[in-house]
Design a protein that fits this description.
Elements (H helix, E strand, L loop, with lengths): L4 H5 L15 H13 L5 H10 L1 H8 L9 H10 L2 H15 L7 E8 L15 E8 L4 E9 L5 H12 L5 E3 L12
Parallel strand pairs: 1-4
Antiparallel strand pairs: 1-2, 2-3
Helix pairs in contact: 2-3, 2-5, 3-5
């Protein structure tokens, strides 16, 4: 039996100071995950997700306060969170939440996040990129990793992600990029 996502998110230490902390960190992170999975991408869009689903979130999560995080709170949390730790918690929960029979066929793909360019003054582009492992039968992501485009290659990131997920007896579907002879092990 796996822990639920909320219990896993509660394991992430809160980096914020106590002054002005109105919402528990797990709640903000849960809203980010739920909103993103529902197609709400960006801070303001996640704020719209909260507004649209306010009553359902309050009821289902049995929140004691009558307030939910605003887009500016979501933004501050996402700018300050240790994203690698957040991903590690999400990945361990996601891989455990999917039954083994739904992990037999997995699709792996990397994407560049539009509008995420860093250091606009530099001569080269530096975008945030994300690689995800997707269960085609369960219809959910079971693992993710991110990196900056000029720091690592997708090949290395995907290899490390697959090692970290420790999957056996699985068929992967990958881009031709990952079929380089010198990279096969």
């Amino acid at each position: 039996m796996t822990n639920n996502l909320i219990e896993e998110l509660k394991k992430i230490p809160d980096f914020r100071t106590n002054e002005g902390k109105r919402h528990p960190l797990w709640l903000v992170l849960l809203i980010v995950i739920m909103g993103t999975m529902s197609g709400y991408l960006g801070y303001r869009a996640l704020g719209d997700f909260v507004t649209r689903h306010r009553e359902a979130l309050m009821t289902i999560l049995k929140l004691p306060k009558k307030r939910l995080p605003s887009y500016s709170t979501i933004r501050r949390v996402m700018m300050g969170i240790d994203f690698e730790e957040f991903l590690a918690v999400f990945n361990s929960w996601a891989i455990a939440a999917v039954p083994n029979e739904q992990k037999r066929w997995l699709a792996v793909d990397g994407k560049t996040i539009r509008g995420s360019e860093k250091n606009l003054e530099k001569a080269y582009s530096q975008f945030v990129q994300v690689a995800s492992v997707y269960s085609t039968s369960a219809g959910i992501v079971v693992g993710m990793s991110s990196w900056l485009s000029n720091e690592k290659s997708e090949i290395i990131v995907v290899q490390n992600l697959l090692k970290a997920l420790r999957l056996e007896g699985v068929v992967f579907s990958l881009d031709a990029l990952h079929c380089q002879k010198k990279r096969l092990r």
